[in-house]
Write a structure and sequence with these properties.
Elements lengths: L11 H11 L6 E5 L2 E4 H17 L7 E5 L4 H12 L3 E4 L6 H11 L3 E5 L3 H9 L6 E5 L10 E3 H6 L18 E6 L9 E5 H16 L6 E4 L6 H14 L2 E4 L6 H11 L3 E4 L1 H9 L13 E4 L6 H11 L3 E6 L6 E4 L12 E2 L3 E6 L12 E7 L10 H7 E2 L2 E10 L5 E6 L4 E3 L2 E3 L1 H9 L4 E10 L5 E9 L7 H14 L8 E5 L12 H8 L3
């Protein structure tokens, strides 16, 4: 473990934002949205105003504030304003429906919500039934007159003097609560992983500065949206820590949207996910747009197939640093490095973290034997909010036992085998769907794939493959037989899919990951 210390008084708003003014970057563009820019000084001033709005609304230190905003200037201002006031940020997708919003309002007990006008149709019914939420601050222009309890963001900020004591930096300490990061909710409702100010600084100092190596000269463009903790780090916290510039856009991420912004803004660091890397490679613009501005691409969120890495590197010349992190640990703790990418692996442990592969009893296993990953470092969450049983099973001191299956080789490289609850027991042998998926992706007819388990006529579980076909290929019995033979030539005999279902696309959750639980439910997987 590395030595890491912070002063007695420490607030992430200063650590990420205010220090840029002290270091002479006040006039530098911090954020670019379309053809508009906002400087570090402008973001800082509005963050001060947000802090004043929160205190005027009665929000006290360590109380949650819910963010329901698309990517844009306001997201950053609200995020840092919450921290400045000593509040605790909680962020969810602005595309959620009212049932989910009602859950988050009740679960977070947020007194104040910052929401975009486009969300009001789903949010207001949930807000009206909320017990504790008192105020919705609306960003953008609503279609109708705002009901009681709602105010306009622009009006609220205009009514605050940013130099008043109301906007002062809350004298928090490293161990004070700062933010909740939500789990993906693969089973049941997502849970909030409770993090302190120190947790976010620790992840920044060790991953962002020592592995990804963010630089002041960087221009960052991201695929995942800011409400997702992976993106909050890579596309807001990390670039602000070094005084870089960030390109944001509220629209859905598509290959065209990214290529458009690469042409205009010439980013140096692309934050992506495997699905979007695949979409960009399949686009004819991949060979038309000049990508020479990129110095590195980051990838996380789901496993990056070796096939995609190799094709991206061959066609763009840009390395992908694939890594894995979690809401429980804030961010990435295993990653490939610049100049040291081991294709097919997730690289080595990030400085400042320790990892073990442990058996079901929690006993460490030797290199070469796969099972659950246990991780620790200075960014481990305190708990899952309001879930003591799950907290006890996951967190043991500063260790976090994940649901991920890994194997580490003798050189210290980690290979991801899948989630423990996604493994399929075929012919009495635990089988990783990811291994089958990667083998199928190597076939030219397969553009995307997800493998789950399904019981056959004898009530035995076998692999079932949902396949998105590459252009020019047609699904059917002939292709299914070809893919079965393809797997049998490359993997153990029991691992070939017994069934194939041809799909236009795979279902994905709000973080862009394949939603396996939807596909499992479709086939009655067990």
């Amino acid at each position: 473990m590395t030595t890491f210390s912070l002063p007695e008084r420490f607030n992430l708003c200063h650590y990420f934002l205010d220090h840029n003014l002290e270091e002479g970057r006040g006039t530098k563009a911090a954020l670019c949205v379309g053809d508009r820019k906002r400087t570090y000084a402008e973001v800082a001033e509005n963050a001060r105003r947000v802090a004043g709005v929160l205190r005027s609304a009665g929000v006290r230190p360590e109380e949650r504030v819910l963010i329901l905003l698309p990517d844009g200037f306001e997201f950053a201002e609200v995020f840092f304003g919450i921290l400045r006031a000593g509040g605790v940020f909680a962020m969810v997708s602005p595309l959620l429906k009212r049932e989910d919003l009602a859950y988050y309002l009740e679960y977070t007990k947020a007194r104040v919500v910052f929401a975009h006008a486009s969300v009001l149709g789903e949010l207001l019914p949930a807000f009206e039934g909320a017990r504790l939420c008192e105020r919705v601050v609306v960003v953008g222009e609503p279609e109708a007159q705002l009901p009681a309890g709602c105010t306009r963001y622009a009006d609220d900020l205009a009514g605050v003097d940013p130099e008043s004591e109301l906007c002062a930096l809350e004298p928090t300490g490293p161990d004070d609560l700062a933010g909740w990061l939500f789990t993906s909710g693969s089973t049941g409702h997502p849970k909030g992983c409770v993090h302190t100010h120190a947790d976010f600084a620790y992840g920044t100092e060790h991953y962002a500065l020592q592995v990804a190596r963010y630089e002041e000269s960087d221009v960052v463009l991201g695929v995942p949206k800011l409400f997702f903790g992976y993106a909050t780090g890579t596309s807001l916290m990390f670039p602000f820590r070094v005084g870089a510039s960030v390109v944001l856009f509220p629209e859905r991420s598509t290959a065209d949207a990214l290529f458009d912004r690469i042409e205009v803004h010439r980013p140096t660091l692309l934050v992506s996910v495997p699905t979007m890397i695949n979409h960009m490679l399949r686009s004819p613009r991949c060979d038309e747009v000049d990508l020479s501005c990129l110095r590195v691409t980051l990838s996380a969120g789901e496993a990056l197939p070796a096939k995609l890495y190799s094709e991206w590197k061959d066609r763009t010349g840009v390395e992908i640093l694939d890594g894995i992190g979690s809401a429980e640990m804030f961010h990435i703790y295993i990653s490939n490095r610049l100049g040291d990418v081991r294709v097919g692996t997730l690289g080595k442990i990030v400085p400042g973290y320790e990892a073990q592969i442990v058996d079901p009893a929690g006993v460490p296993l030797p290199d070469g034997e796969p099972w659950r990953l246990r991780i620790r470092g200075g960014s481990t969450a305190l708990c899952y909010w309001a879930d003591a049983a799950k907290s006890r099973s996951t967190f043991q001191g500063d260790w976090c036992t994940t649901g991920d299956i890994f194997v580490r080789d003798a050189e210290g490289y980690f290979t991801y085998e899948g989630r423990a609850d996604d493994l399929i027991k075929v012919s009495g042998i635990w089988t990783s769907p990811l291994e089958i998926e990667n083998a199928l992706l190597a076939h030219p007819a397969v553009a995307d794939v997800c493998v789950v388990g399904r019981k056959d006529d004898q009530d035995l579980v076998k692999p079932y493959a949902f396949v998105v076909l590459a252009a020019g290929h047609v699904g059917g019995d002939e292709l299914a037989a070809e893919l079965k033979a393809w797997i049998q030539e490359r993997l153990a005999p029991h691992k070939y899919p017994r069934w194939f279902e041809w799909c236009d696309e795979l279902p994905r959750n709000d973080r862009g990951k394949v939603d396996r639980k939807v596909l499992k439910a479709r086939v009655g997987a067990s």
